[in-house]
Amino acid sequence: MNQMSDNKKIIIVEDNEINMDLIQAMLEPFHFNIIEAYDGFEAVEKINSNSDAFLVLLDIGLPGIDGMEVFERLKQSEKTANIPVIAVTAHAMKGNKEHLLSLGFNDFIEKPVDRKVLFEKIENFLHI
Ligand code: MN
Fold first, then answer.
1. In which domain, by residue range, is 30 found?
2. CATH number of 44's domain
3. Where on the phi/psi map is residue 64: left (φ > 0), alpha (ψ -120 to 50), or beta?
């Protein structure tokens, strides 16, 4: 996905610094323009001010307001309602993926994040 990803804006929301670094290290070869947020409030703010991003990777377990609430707020604002959002969560309960998709999340990535899965899922949104 090298050429297509060059300089494209992606927003990564993750409160755990180790996970944040890990995801960014995985994405390093693709030269995205990465915007990072470490809690729910920062996420809403950053997504609002970077609404030209092609994708949001949204951790669900966050301090402040959680990922579900962040998602709801994004959907309520015309400016951000159409930005694709991939939920990133360790809660791999049966039916959880279906639940997230039914709420309007575009996709779902299970933690711990697998490099190959991450690339595949992101790539789907680069083609749009
Ligand atoms: Mn978290």
1. 3-126
2. 3.40.50.2300
3. left
Closest CA to 88 of 118, 109, 69: 109
How many structural domains are present in the chain?
1
% of residues, the chain, pLDDT over 70: 93
CA distances from 127 to 16, 42, 47, 122 (A): 29, 28, 21, 9
Count CB-CB contacts under 10 A for residue 94. 6
pLDDT in tens, 2-29: 566 788 999 999 999 999 999 999 999 9
Contact between 38 and 58 (Cβ < 8 Å): no
- Least trusted range by pLDDT, from 20-34, 83-97, 99-113: 83-97
Distance from residue 90's CA to the centre of ligand 1 (Å): 9
Beta-carbon neighbours within 5 Å of ion ligand 1: 15, 59, 61
- Distance between Cα 63 and ligand 1 center (Å): 8
DSSP-assigned beta bridge partners for residue 59: 88
d(CA 100, CA 53): 21
